[in-house]
Amino acid sequence: MSESSAARTIGVVGAGGIGLSVAADFVIHGFGVVLVDIDESRLEKSRDELSRAVLYGPMLRTALPRVPVEEALARTVFTTRLEALASCEFVVENVTESWDVKRGLYRELDAVLPPGVGIGVNTSSISIGRLAAETTRAPDVIGIHFMNPSYLKDAVEIMRGAETSDACLARVSGILEALGKSAVVVGDFPGFVSNRISHLFFNEAIRVVEEQGVEPATVDAVFKKCFGHRMGPLETADLIGLDTVALTLDHLYDSYGDEKFRCAELLRSMVKTQRLGRKTGHGFYQYGPVQPS
Q1: What is the C-alpha to C-alpha distance for residues 113 and 128, in angstroms, rounded to an integer?
Q2: In the chain, how many H helices and how many E strands?
Q3: How far is residue 205's CA from residue 193's CA, in Å, rounded to a whole number?
Q4: What is the pLDDT of residues 256-288, one digit of tens each?
């Protein structure tokens, strides 16, 4: 834990897979966290998932600080109340990839956060400028695209909106430095760099399964064994959540109007039947009932 992060508190909105891993990343690095979700049962599960991340994260990445689980939980507030974020220096939003949900949330956040408190948009494809326009603090709104699990990653894709200030960018860079990460700054366009490319990759991998009958494990094996990737495209899609992948493809299709972004029918049908990947225990692969983030 660095001295500079010892008394700092970050708000994390959304306790799904990515939100939980972002919260764990901050707690592991000595921050206090206010974790907000509308689902009480989700928050209750988050206590166990956060404990596992704090316990096992440093085993997977030995450079991470080792923090007693009791200390980590003592520095984390689990709540359904957005008002609890008022004491935070910065907020990272991680809710579902839905414009209607995010739009309402940003208006609420703008009402409860003191002036000057910035918002990091952890989105897959929605415009930073569009969300910032729902607030009175557009210079303090910036895209922060954490990858899952956040505490095992060295860098974060940063999306700078048209009105994002230099001060906000510098502030976020400092926060990321306290997490031992670097920032890769890109512009504000649909999908940004990572998801504009990666979701085509996922979608084509799904089409190979759907149209050619290739087993998911075979598709992934090509990328792991032949290209040296740590995970194949279908394993990665399961980790992200197939519902999120489908929503992101829909946003990209609507934004660019290009057929190449049209969601594969197999993906659409899996989402309809709640085969969402690790979060539901079944996607392209079978998982246990609860997966650590």
Answers
A1: 18
A2: 11, 8
A3: 19
A4: 999 999 999 999 999 999 999 998 999 999 997
